[in-house]
Amino acid sequence: MQRFRVLFLIFGACLIFAATSIRAEPLPGTVLKIKPSIVGIGTFMPTRSPQNLFLGTGFVVANGQYIVTNAHVVAKPLESGKLEKWAIYVTQNNKPKLAYVDKIVVDEVHDIAILKLLKGRLPALKLTTRQVREGKLYAFTGYPIGMILGLYPVTHRGIVSAISPVAIPAYNSTKLDSNLIGRLRDPFHVYQLDATAYPGNSGSPLYDVETAEVVGVINKVFVKESKENVLSKPSGITYAIPIEHVKKLLISKGLY
Question: What's the rounded Cα separation, in Å, for the pair 194 and 178?
């Protein structure tokens, strides 16, 4: 009888451990859901060498025709005389593919841009309706160093370490410019992460590791210029724009 009790306790402990392990590791399955919706953002010019210019990351939303990225990622003027076009790069069946897009709307205040596929559709990500919590684990997937090592989306994870205003007051007037003054007058909150992102991650989706719902857009330029104007040396902190601003932009154009 004693031996039976010991075996029963061991078996029960194994079941509890297995269940805990399953609950504790949702990220691998979530990454599989996320990756088909991740695209590289850039331009294609037939007379240029190389023909493809990588600028950042984006992700597919709404009906599968629309792509979200940062406004600063697609800020460059196209050299239309040289047939330069906006393009996205995606991996399908383990092969890189190019598709042309148009830039249809830009929100410079929140550094968001919406692109539209000229042909076809891609799997779209769901935008969250849940509140983001400090201390909760999230992840982001994108192309941190562009296409140098191939078109392979890379995933990082970290907690939201703070939710704070996009701009902080400068300690002297020489640090103020028109953009910063505007953000101070009408500030919005951003997510600060304890994970490291790289320039190519700009435009990557920040998502809930359990639900795969997008909660924000990784931003490596716009936010740092606002929040870190008081620092002589920029930090390695990563920020994200809340997804509510993307939803409002899509809704305002009848796209969501």
Answer: 29
Q: What is the DSSP letter of 127?
A: B
For residue 56, report the phi and psi dihedrals to the nearest 5 degrees.
170, -165
Calculate the CA 181 to chain-centre distance. Answer: 26
What is the tens place of the pLDDT at every residue in 149-161?
Answer: 788 999 999 999 9
CA 237-239-243 angle, 5° bins: 165
Residue closest to 213 by CA, chosen among 166, 189, 237, 247: 247
Q: Give CA–CA dist 243/206, Å, rounded.
A: 9
pTM across the whole model: 0.82
| Domain 33-117: assigned CATH number | 2.40.10.10
Given phi > 0 = left and psi -120 to 50 = alpha, else beta, which region is 199? alpha
Domain definitions of the chain by residue range: 33-117, 137-252
For domain 137-252, is the CATH number 2.40.10.10? yes
> Which residues, in sequence order, are CB contacts of 4 under 8 Å at separation 6+?
none
pLDDT of res. 7: 47
User: Are 55 and 73 spatial neighbours (Cβ–Cβ below 8 Å)?
Assistant: yes
Burial (CB count within 10 angstroms: exposed 0-12, middle 13-18, buried 19+), residue 153 = buried
Q: Which residues pair with 68 in a beta bridge?
A: 59, 114
- Predicted local confidence at residue 223, as pLDDT: 58
Q: How far is CA 200 from CA 40, 69, 147, 148, 175, in A?
A: 9, 11, 9, 11, 27
Residue located via tokens 């597919």: 60
